[in-house]
Design brief:
The protein is mainly alpha-helical and 100 residues long. It has one domain: Orthogonal Bundle (Helix Hairpins), CATH 1.10.287. Helix content is 77%, strand content 0%. The radius of gyration is 17 Å and the shape is elongated.
Length: 100
């Protein structure tokens, strides 16, 4: 079994990739995928600490994070589709729905 630090480094790298994807990319689908990468990084760290401490709390929280991720995908994709109907682009910089 690999030590806890390996899992935490992997989780940190994945979370950093997700943050950079959210900050740098302007495509709505890529932003949603980056958020999913960030949530999976949190899942890795939860499971790693769960295994390290010998408890089952991390697995329970991991299932809750997966449920939130599934809800986020469904609601986020519905919002993107609704916005795409008004303006046929998924570039986030071009959406200014508050402007008449």
């Amino acid at each position: 079994m690999a030590p806890l630090s390996h899992y935490l480094v992997l989780s940190g790298i994945l979370f950093t990739i997700g943050v950079m994807g959210v900050l740098v990319r302007r495509n709505a689908i890529v932003v949603f995928m980056s958020i999913e990468i960030m949530l999976n990084a949190v899942n890795i760290s939860l499971i790693a600490f769960d295994r390290y401490l010998g408890q089952h709390d991390g697995q329970i929280f991991s299932f809750m994070v997966m449920a939130v991720a599934a809800a986020e995908v469904s609601v986020g994709l519905a919002i993107v589709i609704a916005m795409f109907r008004n303006k046929p682009t998924i570039n986030l910089d071009e959406f200014n729905l508050m402007k008449w």
